Amino acid sequence: MSVLVVTGTDTGVGKTIVTAALAAALLARGDTVAVFKPTQAGTEDGRGDIDVVSTLAGVGTAVEGIRLPDPMAPVAAARRAEVTLPDLGEHVAAVEDLAARHDHVLVEGAGGLLVELDGHGRTLADLAAALSVPAVVVCRSGLGTLNHTALTVEALTRRRIPVAGLVIGAWPAVPSEIERSNRAELEHAQAAVSDRASGALLGAVPEGAGRLDPARFRAEAPGWIRPPFGLAPGPP
Questions:
Q1: Does 109 count as an annotated binding residue?
Q2: Is 9 a catalytic site residue?
Q3: Does the pTM exceed 0.85?
Q4: Is 185 annotated as a binding residue?
Q5: pLDDT tens per residue across span 171-182
Q6: N or C: which end of the chain has fewer CB within 10 A?
């Protein structure tokens, strides 16, 4: 399966916009792409993350495991809504079904890597392990990102989940000296992430990219992120 899990060092780091950019980059080369969100918690404006991805990237197939109204951890949001979260096996089956019909499936997590997705303590890391697929880690540009990124990468590698690379979720138009230094460190953090000569960093999405007109977003996204290692083009 050509499936990629998109996780982050925390909530609000830009996973959704990175997922949209990855989808747009893959679609631009002629591949078919589906997006799967196991748990959507928080729909204050009536839209979920897959709606944002669909609008920006033009993805035709975007599926949620469950949609919960409150912007809380999935277990807490489900308890408040008095509903039962889908089991890990249901998520696995949904991804496998999408993978059978598309060149690529992007699985966007909720919050950070170890946020629980079901009522049995299983996380996005458990989903990636069950599917035997790699993960991309979305990180911040500012102070603290090196530690948070290293912790997430370590959690993945301890579970033997391949790390396809890192993406900075929001790169400022005028980066500070700290941000420039962090980017250089992330670019060369390949020891735990990849043995590729090109380094660990797959790219950086410009800050505010989610507010771009969709046509412009799709045109520019392939220049922000290179396709992750292991995501070969679909059949001609």
A1: yes
A2: no
A3: yes
A4: no
A5: 999 999 999 999
A6: C
